[in-house]
Design a protein that fits this description.
Number of helices of chain B: 16
Structural class of chain B: alpha+beta
Helix content of chain B: 40-55%
Largest sheet of chain B: 5 strands, antiparallel
Number of domains of chain A: 2
Order of helices and strands of chain A: EEEHEEEHHHEHEHEEHEHEHEHEH
CATH superfamily of the largest domain in chain A: P-loop containing nucleotide triphosphate hydrolases
Shape of chain B: elongated
Strand order of the largest sheet of chain B: 3-4-5-6-9
Largest interface: A-B, 40 and 38 residues
Distance between the termini of chain B: 97 Å
Strand content of chain A: 25-35%
Structural class of chain A: alpha/beta
Radius of gyration of chain B: 26 Å
Oligomer: heterodimer
Chain lengths: ~325, ~450
């Protein structure tokens, strides 16, 4: 085994009546790693997170968490924490009462409550009832509740939901700090920017199967062509040069893009063809003012990988 | 070869002990404004109500013991008990037990709770115990508040029982407490039905009102002319059976049966709730109760329990029909009249007389010669006769009786005016209506039916 694994899953399957939620899922999550879990609605993410939190057992396959096999519901080892489908708080209690009640439930003292609240930036509202909290504040309090257990494996479902940019950065810092201290974090999110910023590895699920699992960089590199927005000093000349560049396609004007930037040019190409375009523009005395992917590489890879397996569906996550 | 001990992580962390989960559930319950308001209302409301009503000239004579509220502090808590059994306790069980599981559905906290406690069984035990604790706290508040209000407003005086005998204050205190204790059993039954509704119906508001709806249905059933074996088999019977404690001798049979039936319901409904809870798939975020299966999984077993109870009581007790007949009413009315006559004699400062000297008797008739003399109704007419010491004459008085199907009757004096007409008498607490004018009585529905 190359490294210690916080999660080791082999051939995990899980069905609800006729619906197959997970179908032969393999997953390795190393210690001290932040691992992203992405997939379209109905891909089986929530089911997988539920298994990692011990809320259910798989119908088939083997699951080991922190080195212990999991064969029964709620039989996880100590120091596994997290939340699925929201942080699970009691609105009639204050933030600190929520944490104190949980700490007492687990038999631990209330010493860590102040620290946990400080880590997620909620010290100022420690004595406010959760009823008045915004979604973002609740998410952060849910994270604080998980931190109380000093987890070795932290399982989080959309922890950045409802967070403003400052709150998001705050949560990112907390998660990166945890990983630096050896905690493994499994993070489910639809926000590709979060995953790209935080995760060293991602697993993409589609219709209950793993379509990719590995380093984020490898995922981005696997994507051949991306759409780029090019802003230049001479849009007409740039369009002419682009249309003459081999292995590069000029895309029809995008209505949404045009509304924001009428002079931008949209092209689809792999990186070598894009390099060629830049060289040609320079030779044609056209200054390149901006060159950026329209869709982030991770998101593009996600869309490419899930497009084939994911038929349009209205279903929610299983 | 050297053996090496390797410290492996424990395969499964231990679930949180029930004691800690129970505290957690209590904290959650007591943090709800609704529960806090209930506690305040139950601990303060009855005292204020009893104190105010006791000072009124018009007393709630329709409620059992209501007519004695201005003469003894022990009548107040019994009026509170009577009112609570009809309305307050079913509502209290609805608001506490009827929501204790559904609240987690509403808040979306089940998964969170399961991860923290790691044992659905312990969660069930903790929630059940916590809701029962709060319900007991509320019942204790109702009782204590009613007693404090009555004693503070009227005083620690003897209480007139349901066969007219005078209970000394200490005896009255003990019997009042016993009466409150006896209604804990049906309260537990309704709480268990609340738990069942809360588990079975999920977020649906129907779960919250199940005990209250059951109480209304059972109250309506108690108004119907049901056979006594069916009446006693209802889980709400112990809510009225406590009145038998206030006769001499106490009517223990109906109380014991009522308590047993209530406890059977409490156990059955809790067991059903437990089974439904343990079968639940907590990974199903869309779960919202068992839906229509509630009829098969909850209502049908309880209906079966009712049927079995009716059968067992029918075999075990000798009584048939309504349990109300002429001999029972004759005895009860004659006894009550004798006790109250002695009381009236004292209040009017006449020469002392005892019940034995009076040798009272009664002859009741229902609806004239065309109707059989049994069953509830307001068409009972009774002639009471008695003897005064030193006199050969027999006194006679007439009463109209309104007998309800639960065995309680209200006797209304119909002459002669100087015996059972309306006039004021002087009592230790001030002027009060003639005790023989109108009074309440109770027949033992389960006593063997006598031949007339």
């Amino acid at each position: 085994m190359p490294e210690n694994l916080a999660v080791r899953a082999r051939g995990i399957s899980k069905s609800f009546d006729e619906v197959v939620a997970l179908d032969g899922v393999d997953l390795d999550i190393a210690e001290a790693q932040i691992h992203g879990l992405v997939g379209p609605n109905g891909a089986g993410k929530t089911t997988l997170l539920g298994l990692l939190l011990g809320l259910a057992v798989a119908d088939g396959g083997d699951l080991e968490i922190l080195g212990s096999p999991v064969r029964r519901t709620l039989s996880l080892p100590d120091r596994v924490a997290g939340f699925v489908d929201g942080p699970g708080l009691y609105p009639s209690l204050t933030a600190s009462q929520n944490l104190a009640a949980l700490a007492r439930l687990r038999g631990s003292g209330s010493d860590g409550i102040g620290d946990a609240l400080e880590q997620v930036g909620l010290t100022d509202v420690a004595h406010d009832r959760v009823r008045g909290f915004s979604l973002g504040m609740r998410q952060r309090l849910g994270l604080a509740a998980a931190l109380l257990t000093k987890p070795r494996l932290l399982v989080l479902d959309e922890p950045a939901n409802g967070l403003d940019p400052a709150g998001t950065r705050h949560v990112h810092r907390v998660l990166m700090g945890l990983a630096a201290d050896g905690t493994s974090v499994v993070l489910s999110s639809h926000r590709m920017d979060d995953l790209a910023a935080l995760c060293s590895e991602v697993t993409i699920l589609a219709t209950g199967r793993v379509v990719f699992s590995g380093p984020v960089g490898k995922l981005a590199a696997e994507t051949d062509e991306l759409d780029y927005r090019v802003r230049t000093s001479d849009p007409a000349a740039a369009r002419r040069v682009a249309s003459e560049t081999p292995q590069l396609r000029v895309l029809p004007d995008d209505e949404l893009l045009r509304r924001h930037d009428a002079e931008a040019l949209l092209v689809r190409a792999a990186v070598p063809a894009l390099d060629d375009l830049v060289a040609r523009l320079v030779r044609a005395n056209v200054a390149v003012r901006e060159l950026a992917p329209v869709v982030a590489p991770l998101e593009a890879a996600f869309l490419a990988l899930t497009a084939a397996t994911n038929a349009p569906s209205e279903d929610e996550d299983l | 070869m050297t053996a090496v001990a390797v410290a492996l992580p424990r395969a499964g962390a231990r679930p949180a002990p029930v004691r800690r989960s129970y505290r957690f559930e209590l904290v959650k319950l007591l943090a709800q404004w609704r529960i806090r308001l209930l506690i305040l209302a139950c601990w303060v409301g009855p005292a204020l109500l009893v104190a105010v009503i006791s000072q009124q000239s018009s007393l709630p004579a329709d409620t059992v013991f209501g007519r004695w509220m201005s003469q003894t502090g022990w009548a107040g808590p019994l009026v509170v008990l009577s009112f609570s059994c009809s309305y307050v306790l079913p509502i209290v069980t609805s608001l506490v037990a009827g929501d204790v599981f559904a609240a987690e559905d509403r808040l979306g906290t089940w998964r969170h709770l399961l991860v923290a406690v790691r044992s659905p069984r312990r969660i069930f035990a903790a929630k059940t115990l916590a809701s029962l604790t709060v319900i007991l706290l509320l019942v204790a508040g109702l009782a204590a508040s009613g007693i404090v209000g009555g004693l503070a407003a009227v005083g620690n005086r003897p209480l007139v029982g349901l066969d007219g005998q005078l209970l000394a204050p200490a005896h009255a205190a003990g019997t009042v407490l016993l009466a409150w204790a006896s209604v804990l059993a049906p309260t537990l039954a309704f709480a268990a039905v609340g738990l069942l509704g809360s588990v079975a119906l999920g977020r649906s508001p129907m779960g919250l009102v199940v005990p209250a709806l059951l109480a209304i249905a059972l109250q309506l059933a108690q108004l119907l002319p049901l056979p006594v074996v069916v009446r006693v088999a209802l889980p709400s019977y112990a809510f009225i059976a406590w009145r038998g404690l206030f006769t001499d001798p106490p009517q223990i049979g109906p109380i014991v049966l009522g308590v047993i039936v209530s406890l059977a319901w409490a156990v059955a409904a809790t067991a059903l709730a437990y089974v439904l809870f343990m079968r639940r798939d907590f990974t199903d975020a869309a779960y919202d109760g068992v839906g229509r299966r509630v009829l098969v999984q909850a209502a049908l077993p309880l209906a079966a329990l009712l049927a079995v109870t009716v059968g067992v009581i029918a075999v075990a007790t000798p009584v048939a029909g309504s349990g109300i007949d002429k001999p029972k009413l004759d005895r009860s009315l004659a006894t009550a009249f004798a006790h109250l006559y002695v009381m009236q004699t004292g209040e009017l400062h006449r020469p002392n007389v005892t019940e034995a000297q009076l040798r009272s008797g009664a002859a009741c008739d229902k609806g004239g010669s065309l109707l059989a003399d049994h069953g509830a109704g307001n068409d009972w007419r009774c002639v009471v006769s008695w003897h005064l010491p030193g006199s050969t004459a027999t006194g006679q008085a007439i009463y109209q009786l309104d007998v309800t199907p639960d065995g309680r009757y209200k006797a209304d004096g119909d002459g002669p005016q100087e015996v059972n007409g309306f006039f004021q008498v002087h009592t230790a607490t001030g002027d009060a209506p003639n005790p023989l004018w109108q009074f309440d009585g109770l027949v033992d529905l389960l006593a063997p039916t006598s031949k007339g």
